[in-house]
Batch of 2 targets.
Target 1
Amino acid sequence: MRDNMRGAAAIVGIGELKPERTRPGRDAMSLRAEAAYLAIQDAGLTKTDIDGMILEEGMTPTGSGYNPKMAEYMGIYPTFATGCDAQGAAGVTMALQAAAYINAGLCDYVLCGMSAAIDGSRPRRPAGPGHTETATSEFSAPFGPTVGANGWYAMIAKRYEKLYGATVEKRAKISVDLRYNANHNPMAIWHDVPITVDDVVNSRIVADPLHLLECVMPCAGACAFIVTRADIARGMRHKPAYVLGGANGVSRGNLTHVGEITISPVGRAARKAFAMSGYGPSDVQVMEIYDSFTITVMCELEESGFCPKGTAGDWVQEHDLTFKGDKPLNTHGGQLSYGQASTAGGCAQVTEAVRQIRRDAGEHQVPGPTDLVYVTGSGGTFSQQSALLLASGAAL
Amino acid sequence: MLRRNIASPTNAAPHVEPGFSTRATSALGPSALVLGRWSGSSLAGRGWVYASSISYQPAHPAFADDVPYVLAIIELDEGVRMHSNVVGIDPKEVEIGMRVEVAWDDVTPEISLPKFRPIQK
């Protein structure tokens, strides 16, 4: 496998807006631009330095040509700009896209980002069957659309229960440890509310077998980061977070087309990412695992090689997943407790990894070493997942 | 929309990716129909519940009176998997592995949805 991307690029700037239930009067473009400017400032750059752009449309479809519209809005003139269609995996995928573009010489400073707007003054549009004839509108929606992805992941969780036995009593530990992390992060939407296993088990069932406190909720927010060449990164104001390895695993758009729905495609991505990096799962010091639902984390832990298939329920009991624990996981609170501003939720797991590597996470800084961080992204119904290894200079 | 005679897809080769899914069965699924791969033979309308969940929240007002309902993936005996609902049973009684048969729901004079009910022993 070609590994000339290993360590060739680094994340040098991060910017994000605190997830909120609504941000009245703010549209997605302005949220995204604000996070982008924060990232540019954090990197010690100005917008004239930005020559690459990977912005994702998220929840505000405005038709094609989205990056030129954002370039116009922000006053940036990139020489290479594309989108990203990786759904929830977009944060991780953009980092890999940017590293590849930089390694290919297409651009030097790539702005990546996305946002989600929820204007509380407007009634939320009901999610209904689309007007175009797709497999979803034809063969899925007529049997009842689900709120977000709740129904699909509930089916995965139910089948996981059938095959391996781990039910909400075991899954709940993930929600509780992540909430503890959020309780130490002022940026987290659930910063002020602690929870217990009983709270999770007794929360209402939204889609059987998933309980409310096992599911993300819609938020408004934005997240952005800047990627540049490693040799440039070394002279910049922050400690670089190097891209050591990464890959995507693409499965199927519809759950009906997947061989075994409890097997998620991050396994293929992880194997490639680890091979590129020269490290293995046991070397990882911090994990930022995409957590749309508790069951998502369990399948990804198994497929990524942290524990054998079917054992994640026990694994999360045996380990302390808090930022102070032996297996720090989703140190900012995860999307479950930090907040999921649509695809920016996955992006915030990338920026949190950078923060841990820089060692400036403040109250929720992992006390042990944070030189090698594993980040995943997940889109659709385990439709596409990405794995990324970020590292400090010490792990290069 | 779905019609009563759902043709089974031809070349329904098992979707098996080495190292990815060793238990994959045929999962070509309904979009093979969208793509126009028809064999002309009808499906028998029997299969089993591959996965299921109970929806308590209607995502669309049209389903407000239906909650709680069972959202499921049914694997037909011919090897095709499809989304559907399991009806004619208390949602909490539905189990993965349960044998089911088609129960047509004539939602309009033109449109019938293939839902599934347990096969009586």
Note: Residues 28-42 of chain A form the longest helix (15 residues).
Target 2
Amino acid sequence: MRRVRAWAARLAASVRRARADRDLADELESHLHLLEDEFRRRGLRPHEAHRRARIQLGGVDATTERCWDAGRLRILDHLLRDLTFGVRLARKQPGFTLVATASLAIGIGLTSVVLTVVDAAFFRPLPVAHPDQLVDIYTNDPTDDDPYATSSYPDYRDLRASNSAFTDILAYTPAFATLAVGTQSRLALAEAVSGNYFQVLGLRATQGRLLRPEDDRPGALRTVVISAALRRAAFGEDAAVVGQTLHIRGHPYTVVGVAPRAFTGLTPVLQPELWVPLAWIDEVEQVGMQHVVPSPGETRLERRGQRWLFLKGRLADGETVTRAAANLDGIMSALAEAYPVSNAGHHLTLIRTSKVLVLPQMTGPLRVATLGLILVAGLVLVVTCTNIAGMLLSRGAARRQELGLRLAIGAGRGRIIQQLLVESLVLATCGGVVGIAVTWALSRAIATIRPPLPLPVTLDVALDARAVLITVGVSTVAGILAGVMPAIAGSRRDLTVALRDPEAPSRQRGWNIRDGLVTAQVAITLLLLVAGGLMTRSAVSTARADVGFDPTGLATVSTSLELLGYDDTRATRFMQGALERVRAMPAVQSAALTQRLPLSITYSRDSLLVPGRHVTERDAVPTETTVVSAGYFETLGIPLLRGRDFSTTDTPSSPRVAIVNDVLARRYWPDGDAVGQRFRVRTWDGPEYQIVGVSANYAVRYSMERPTPYIHYAASQRGLTAGVIVARTSGDVADLAATIRRELTMREPYLVFVAGYSMNDTIGATLLPVRLAAASVGATAVVAMVLAAIGLYGLIAFAVVCRTRELGIRRALGAPHGAILWLVMRHGLGALGVGAVIGGAAAYAAATALSGVLLGVKAADPWAWVAAIALLTATGVTASSVPVRQAMRLSPFTALRVE
Amino acid sequence: MTQPRADVWQGTLNLMVLTTLDAMGPLHGYGIARRIEQTSGDRLAINDGTLYPTLVKLEQGGYIASRWGLSENNRRAKYYRLTPAGRRRLARAVHDWDRTTAILAKFIPRGEQPS
């Protein structure tokens, strides 16, 4: 207690220095007066009394100073003073501060954003009550040798009823819901959950109530809980939503409440917008793992062999995972005896929820990937810090006399180290503040990346207190990392040397770690610049590439009737009717149906068997297929080389027909006409098709692909449940697509539309990975370039500072500019040259290895290389221009006027 | 200046200040310095200024308290007095001192007292 009081008093004294100073001065003066009185009383003359009084007291200033040292928090006071000095120094050298801040902001921002994303995606504990008590329960999948598979509903009910280890167990599955709030229907991510889901998690509604067990009973009213995000989007921020109705696949559901804002479901990474009771599972489209063993039952809720649910249990007090596993194992063995068909060979695996990253199968690889990401970010931070350390070292060398003088008049080494560290922390703080802005911008950019998926998926990387805390931590580490080496170097006790010979550090000759580091930075920069250039060139040439048809002027409308529970006949009838209406629109030149669009991510294959070419069924060749209506080739602008288009005479009862592309025709019938030839799919007993036409080749999976064999079946014979309407117009494509959507919605209000409005959107989506790769590698290259520039600058500036005196002498003796330049640049040029050679070799090797991915551009692409080398040279020149100019401007007098 | 003067042992100044205040009651810095001088028989070599850091520390520790007042010859001066905490501290310090000297006494041969 006493110590605390003493500290508090000192702290107060620190703050009230001015007042206390006056008080002490008064006191000492009164002391002097009393002494003088005494001496005068003893008969000394006033003048002598005054002198003796001063001797007796000792120096007033020294006494004051000693009182301060005794009384104040010395460290705090010094810290304050160092801080003021550090800030003043930072302001006095704006160039230095700016470069250091920018560099640190990049390093800190990158590191923080990586840590933030990793943290947001994997490590943030679930925002539920006591997340540490939750345990994941998986049934194994013997067919796949996967211990972490889903469970069936009857198994779940038995486990829940009979176990003694868990207070309760919940079940859920992610699902797609055809959601309509008002008139607009769209695809939404939902979780179908057991009635006890929210109770087991211990969550409270922000409005209304959450689901209860009675909502999840057959015959209950349809109820739903919505996310805070859905409430905001569909009803407004503060809207009262309890009792509102929304439609899922046309059925009215009553909103009973809103989930907590922080809770984004148990499905990792993704964010469901609504929670529906499992009782209504057949009104949503269950997604995710499922494995099925035939078993009795009408619905998936009754079939014990159909496994599709994720289970989580809350451990009872004092229970362990091991004991719980033994308990559940017993129940599963009993079930395997009772239901051998569906349950033999099935057992459970339990794992604490907090130990799982996304999914248990992914935990291992994700850990490695995460570690890799953190390592890379850490490396960037280390490089940044080393650069700053380099800059601080050269500044320290320039301040050698100042520091030497301070040491000489009695400053402790600790004080000097403290001062220099505070200075680097001031820089790191500037970097950290800008770094938070960088982190914010980057995480915003990441949040806007939309993967080409049919529903809105976003990574939740909002910048919260945790992220800011991470940034602050990273900045502090950066400040210390960057400052500690220069601080120790700057505080060395060789005072006399420092004072007499300010160029002491110039004894450093040859190469050291810093040169190596700068060399490595240059090499990495060149590698990244070349890679970024090649990727950009590839992205550009892919975007410009001829895809075999004309994508401009093509409106597309993609939909799925399967989601609405249509069967084939009904769906086909609907699609045919829709096509006729679209064809009748005045803006439409021609229109057609297709199962998949070229260059989209849809995937469909059949194994092709050609009589005479293939012998056994094992020879069958997997071949890309689609189903199209008549007019498809005309609409897309793909020439039919031989034969005919599909027509109204191709009906389900007429012989099956197909149109193949040129490369397929030439491959299997190289000598004759493919038209009229027949092939089968899957097996020799499988359906037989006659080729009625051959189309020109066009891009199927991605642009610039090698021509891919492609089979088109007739929509009039096969039917379409999920399909795309393509329409060519000379007018506005988006307008037309919107008109078509309206037309279709009038006929089926709950229709859900997928992806973009035009063929160019689709192509854009397929180009997204290439563009993203080009952009991210390009951005990394720019960062690396800035860092390398700062590294080079530090290296050359250090050389100039160390040799100021030598340079002065040389100038005085008449050394030509060239010689001076060479002397200063030698180190920098060496690092630049060696780095460029290493980086160039690595870049060429990488480009050659990547030539399969880099479409439309050669490894030795002159544009990419010339641009990369030009940028690197510009970087080198910029980085060295400041210190070199400084060296050239050195007047021999200034340089030689030392002490 | 006829007698050689001893340096003040580190830490003993605290004790001297506390005993002085205990014996004399409230006193200003000048008075404390004179009293220590008298008590030691002028054998201690201290500048009056040396006293002040000790006073500051003791005051911040809460062992002594101060207020401005008037000296006998009508000069403004800061008077220090012992606080209850200071009294306890003094008692403990005296106890410690006695024990230490008692132990040390056993190591030092009797008979010839150093003068």
Note: Chain A has a mean pLDDT of 82.
